[in-house]
Each structure stands twice: as structure tokens, then as C-alpha cells.
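Changelog excerpt

This revision adds worked examples to the README so contributors can see how folded entries look when concatenated. The first example is reproduced verbatim below.
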Amino acid sequence: MPRRRKRKTNWKRQEERALRVRGVRRGTPDAKKLARAFIKLALARAEFEAQAQAQATTRANKPMQCDSDNKGDRDEAS
């Protein structure tokens, strides 16, 4: 059975830790890169929504099968 390790005396719980956040100053943002990124995000979102809508319409237009048809298929496979 593994031994339990003793806690180090300088160890603190997560709630007791003091965290510091420092901002890093950088130059002005590249507007062209940001614009390209936003455009790509918008195109990806539009494509995802179009695919979701296409799947929803195909599911709505797909005819439902009767349970009796499915049971017959299972009996033949057995």
C-alpha cells in the first residue's frame, strides 16, 4: 500500500494563494488581421448554421417507417 506523503509546510490551499495578473503592453493591434479573423469566424458560423438547417429539413422531409417493418427486418437477420 502506498505511503501518504506529508504536506510541505509552505504549501497553501488554492483559496489562500495570492494571485497576481500583470498586463503586457503591446503595440496597436493589427486591424487587418483582426478583420480577417472576424470574417473567418462569421463564415464558419454561417456554414455551421446552414448545415444544421439542412439536416433539420432533411429529417423533417424523411418519411417515418412503421415499427412492424423494423421488426420483420430483425427477425430475418436473426
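The second example, added in the same revision:
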Amino acid sequence: MRNLQPPQGIYDTVKEWFEANDQAVSKGAVLKEIYPASSFSRQRHRPPTRYPSILVGGTVGVIPGGRVWGQNGAVITPDNYLIWDASLEYVHPRSNHSIFKENTLAPISQKYHQVADLTHAEGRNYYHWMYEVLPRIHLLQESGIDVEHYIVKPEPVSLPFQAETLNQLGIAEHQLIHTFEGFHLQADQLVVASQPSFATKWGYNFLRRTFLTEDSTERKRIYIRRKWSRIITNESELWEILRPLGFIMVELETLSVNEQARLFSSAEIIVGAHGAGFANLTFCQPGTIVIEIFSPTYITPLYWAISSFGNLKHHYFIGDFAGSNRAQGNQGWTGLDNITIHPRKFAAFIRNMRLS
């Protein structure tokens, strides 16, 4: 089979491609809008930085003759355009996407009648998996389109949260098609659910319904410890402030998704450095106090927004830059920078909240 050329252009979404191709329906294309876009009605004040005023909706499209290429799973239309939101790589400009680095694409090696795409460049990250992969399964289920196989990106090490959540959503291992370097699949009907790039309220509602079986009656004070990146370098000093106030220290990596959901549902107060584990704020009860610690080099409103969905009391504390996290290979990105807190400032911050 002949090699193919990289895409000749980009569509932001399947919906944009569908609306730009008048003949698509006659060839079997389908577009279903499951959730419309909505304005963001915030419940919490003082976001740490700017936030989207519009939250994206959710659609499912069927692309006749659609293709999926490469380990990250780039989605390509039959007229050879890249669907950006389903092929997202964190690059700028978009021409730096890995598919545009190829002179030609490897021949199509696999063909299926119908298959759904669930690939994500950063699916190994707990937040991205929970809010940008699993909600796409919900969209597929709501669409009423029967799907037998799902394309996923494999990870170099086993990630129990992926297997646990897929199993809970009724997707078995034999239904998964794993990408690899040189992967190139074509489907008679490629089913593509839109991929949100920011947390959505409909995704939040779906995760709560699916993984939170019951609200806890316990009220715990929780400190989330990080081991690999965005480390608080003087954590012992921080702990000396929190421990007398009745906090317990947890490492979320040791818990299943359902255990994390129950833990966060039991929380009265949650403290920790910004990180993917805060995706579990989804499972908190209204009124839970959240204290998110940032490095001054990387501040995001992501978990402030999720707190707003659940009517939590979100606060943030900005520490001091404590150096790049060399073990993680930041490559110029400040999002993994380590943090030092000023003990007196943090103690005053806590006293002002009257937590004792």
C-alpha cells in the first residue's frame, strides 16, 4: 500500500469539518450534539488567574473513511485534514504537531468497520484521563452509537486508574486497540467524541454519578503529599503547621479511584500543591475548604473552576520558586517547578481562615 501525505490543513473540531463539507452526510457522516456550549456561571470569587467564560459542549461525529495515525492518535478526515481537538498535542504553533514533521505517513496497516477514538497525548496524567478521556466515553454512550472497539494510547508503565475506570464503564481489554509508533488505522466509520480542553460541568456531573457511590459522613482534614514533581521542598515545616490542626497526610497514588472518591467525599479541608490529584475535588461535598498551593511560575484556575462546579470554598497560596524539577525533564515548561513555602506567611494564612 502507498504512503500518504501529512494532512493539508486543520479543522478545530469534527463539527467544523462536518459543517464545511456539504457532501459529508451523503457519504455517511453523522454529527450529534450531546451538550451545547454554556456560559460559565461561577460560584466562587477570586479566581487565581483568568478562566474561560464559555465552557465547550460535547458532540459525537462519525467520519466515513476516517483515519488515526501515530502513537498519540491523530485523527484525519477522508479529505486529509487533521481534527485538532481529537489530536491535541501541547505545541505552538500548531504546525509543530508531530504529524507535520513527517514527509510521508506510513501505509494504512489496520482496517476496521467501526471504531471509536479515545487517544490522548497526556492520558497518563490522572486529571487529563478523568476530565478529557472518560467524558468522551459518556458522550459515546449518550449518542446511541454502538461501539465495539476503542483506540487508546498505551503507557510505558501500568496505570491502574485507567484499567479500573474503563472496567467500571463496561469496556473490556479485548475491546481496546493500542497505538504504536507507525500506527495507521482506517475505519469505514470512525467515531470521534469531542475532547474538552478545560473541565466542563457535564463532565463533572458524569464523574460524580459514575465514581461516587455515596457521600461520606466523616469529616477529615487532608494534606496531599506529592513525590515526583511540584514538590514542596520544606514540607516538614508545612507539616508542623498542619499536623496540630488534625490533618492527615495521604499519597493518592496508593489509592484506587473509588477510594480517592470516598476520601475526598469525607473531606472537611483539603490542602496540597497544585496537581492532578485535585481532579478528585469532583467528589467533595459542598462547602469543603480547598487550599491549593502554587509556584509563582505556574498558576492556573483549573481547580478553582471545578470547585465552583461543586460550590466548594477554594483558596490559594502562592509559595516561592524552588527550582526546576530536573528529574521530570521540564524542557522549558514551568508547570512542574518545585515550591518552597514561607512558614510564617503560611501560618498567618491558616490563622486568618480560623481553622482551629
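Reviewer comment on example two: The helical segments are 14-20, 126-143, 160-168, 201-211, 235-242, 257-265, 302-309, 343-353. Residues 126-143 form the longest helix (18 residues).
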